[in-house]
């Protein structure tokens, strides 16, 4: 991944280019909509790419967490059923709790 200074430089260049495009379309071409479309599309693409990368990072972190928990449970030897860990059942056949 690029460093933060590179990211800031790219963002600054993209912002400057967007402003120049909007000013050009407003003054020279006299069509603001064309300039806005041309200036907004790169920003939307940037946001989509960042969103995808963020989702990949989240998925990777969740995979690491799941594998760490699996290794932890295997090394501890906790292969019990959830009802066994409580020591006794809380419901009887009729649905009334044991006291």
Q: Secondary-structure blueprint of this entry?
A:
Blueprint: H1 4-29, H2 32-76
Helix pairs in contact: 1-2
**What is the SS-derived class?**
mainly alpha
Count the DSSP helices.
2
- The average pLDDT is 78
Apparent shape = rod-shaped
Low-confidence stretches: none
Instruction: Report Rg.
Output: 29 Å
Percentage of helical residues? over 70%
Total number of β-strand segments? 0
Say what oligomer this is: single chain
Walkthrough of the structure:
- This protein is an all-alpha fold.
- The chain has 2 helices and no strands.
- It has helices at 4-29, 32-76.
- The chain is rod-shaped, with a radius of gyration of 29 Å.
- The protein starts with a helix and ends in a 23-residue tail after the last helix.
- The model has no long low-confidence stretch (mean pLDDT 78).
Brief rundown of the structure:
The protein has helices at residues 4-29, 32-76. The chain is an all-alpha fold.
């Amino acid at each position: 991944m690029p460093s933060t200074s590179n990211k800031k430089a790219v963002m600054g260049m993209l912002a400057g280019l967007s402003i120049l495009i909007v000013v050009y379309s407003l003054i020279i071409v006299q069509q603001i909509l064309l300039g806005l479309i041309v200036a907004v599309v790169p920003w939307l693409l940037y946001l989509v790419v960042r969103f995808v990368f963020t989702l990949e990072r989240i998925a990777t972190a969740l995979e690491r967490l799941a594998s760490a928990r699996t290794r932890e449970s295997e090394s501890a030897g906790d292969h019990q059923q959830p009802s066994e860990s409580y020591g006794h059942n809380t419901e009887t056949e009729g649905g009334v709790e044991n006291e």
